[in-house]
Task: inverse folding
């Protein structure tokens, strides 16, 4: 049984983890995950499930991240205690750290809720970076896949973190995997961080992206999903009326709806691109699925201000694109405000490859060039780099990146005048967000 990462039903549990951690006698267990625990993560989801589902509570012996279970399954694992747990998943989502002797203490977990009693001992102490082998293919899986049994299976990690490696990440360059949401990674040598703990991000973990470096993660809970929401909003009446019409056959109805769904965002982008910055007067917040970074808060909702009778679909769409880019700027500014330089942006994922309007807007909002990774499947390429290293083909992940990397196929450069104009709009985004967040906290 799996819980989708996008599930945000554990908001209450995340708040309890944060409250307890801030006052815990042995120190704040959230300090290596930005000081804010999220409802998207390991302990919050476990606790929520235990509270809500008696059958799972009675039956579940242990819990695992999907990226840990798949290698365990492929290598024929039988004993859960022998499952090699990902440093990436453990550090960013489960509050694992060497300083804590692994996971948070039994005393802390039972103080959080007695339902968690004993679970720590059924989980893990040791974690592994993804350049290490988890084992070799089991006989059953070798037969199913038509591969020899000596094929090495590497330790897992989150897809976006491997994507950063596939995109040839380098120190202080922010790698943005942009799809339905975003996952933003930055790596830095441990000696250069000098004990800095960046507030409000999704963690900083030794070896989570590149072994031997500190991996820092941030992200947005909705990116491409924001655009898809607006597309679906516009298409609802059209789809509804097409379905009610008796003028079209079933085949024609389906073809019409598919054609509209596949072309609408391109048409909106073409029209929105012709709208001058600040012409519409519209400012939006990108929190349709809450806010992941900076300062995770899944209770937040999106909002739009500045609408009038002249506000049309392209203008509103442009404001939504700008909102997602402003959310990205908030992440970059959090890093730089905390003393972590961002030297450049690497773009990968579906939106980066398919949406020139979005990427040009992002370059101008950030006032930084964005290099787009050439590979169409960067996360898979990064997984291949890790696998080749785990199999001994390369001595290090860096060497695998050098040999296997595909480079970049284009660069989006900001227009200086538009970048300056976006500074004004970004200020409105920030103040508008402050108002909405304050009202959310007050419950008004």
Result:
């Amino acid at each position: 049984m799996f819980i989708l990462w996008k599930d945000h039903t554990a908001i209450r549990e995340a708040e309890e983890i944060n409250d307890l951690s801030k006052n815990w006698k042995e120190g704040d267990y959230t300090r290596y995950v930005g000081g804010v625990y999220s409802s998207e993560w390991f302990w919050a989801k476990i606790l929520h499930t235990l509270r809500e589902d008696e059958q799972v509570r009675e039956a579940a012996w242990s819990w695992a991240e999907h990226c840990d279970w798949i290698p365990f399954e492929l290598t024929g694992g039988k004993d859960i205690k022998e499952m090699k747990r990902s440093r990436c998943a453990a550090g960013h989502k489960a509050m694992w750290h060497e300083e804590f002797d692994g996971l948070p203490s039994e005393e802390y977990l039972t103080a959080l809720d007695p339902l968690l009693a004993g679970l720590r001992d059924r989980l893990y102490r040791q974690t592994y970076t993804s350049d290490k082998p988890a084992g070799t293919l089991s006989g059953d899986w070798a037969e199913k896949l038509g591969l020899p049994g000596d094929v090495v299976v590497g330790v897992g990690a989150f897809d976006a973190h491997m994507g950063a490696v596939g995109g040839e990440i380098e120190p202080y360059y922010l790698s943005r995997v942009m799809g339905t949401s975003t996952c933003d990674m930055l790596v830095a040598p441990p000696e250069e961080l000098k004990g800095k703990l960046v507030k409000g991000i999704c963690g900083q973990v030794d070896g989570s992206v590149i072994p031997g470096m500190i991996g820092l993660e941030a992200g947005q809970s909705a990116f491409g999903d924001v655009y898809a929401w607006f597309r679906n909003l516009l298409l609802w009446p059209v789809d509804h009326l097409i379905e009610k019409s008796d003028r079209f056959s079933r085949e024609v109805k389906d073809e019409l709806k598919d054609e509209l769904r596949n072309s609408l965002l391109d048409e909106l982008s073409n029209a929105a691109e012709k709208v001058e910055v600040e012409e519409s007067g519209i400012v939006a917040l990108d929190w349709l699925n809450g806010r992941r970074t900076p300062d995770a808060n899944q209770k937040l909702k999106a909002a739009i201000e500045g609408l009038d009778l002249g506000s049309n679909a392209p203008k509103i769409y442009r404001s939504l694109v700008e909102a997602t880019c402003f959310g990205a700027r908030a992440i970059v500014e959090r890093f730089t405000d905390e003393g972590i330089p961002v030297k450049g942006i690497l773009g990968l994922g579906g939106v980066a490859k398919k949406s020139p309007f979005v990427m040009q807007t992002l370059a101008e909002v950030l006032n930084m060039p964005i290099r787009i990774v050439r590979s169409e499947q960067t996360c898979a390429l990064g997984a291949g780099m890790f696998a080749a290293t785990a199999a001994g083909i390369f001595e290090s992940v860096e060497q695998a990146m050098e040999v296997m990397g595909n480079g970049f196929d284009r660069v989006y450069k900001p227009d200086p005048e538009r970048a300056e104009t976006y500074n004004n709009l970004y200020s409105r985004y920030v103040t508008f967000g402050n108002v909405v967040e304050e009202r959310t906290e007050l419950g008004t």
Q: What stands out?
A: The longest helix spans residues 416-442.
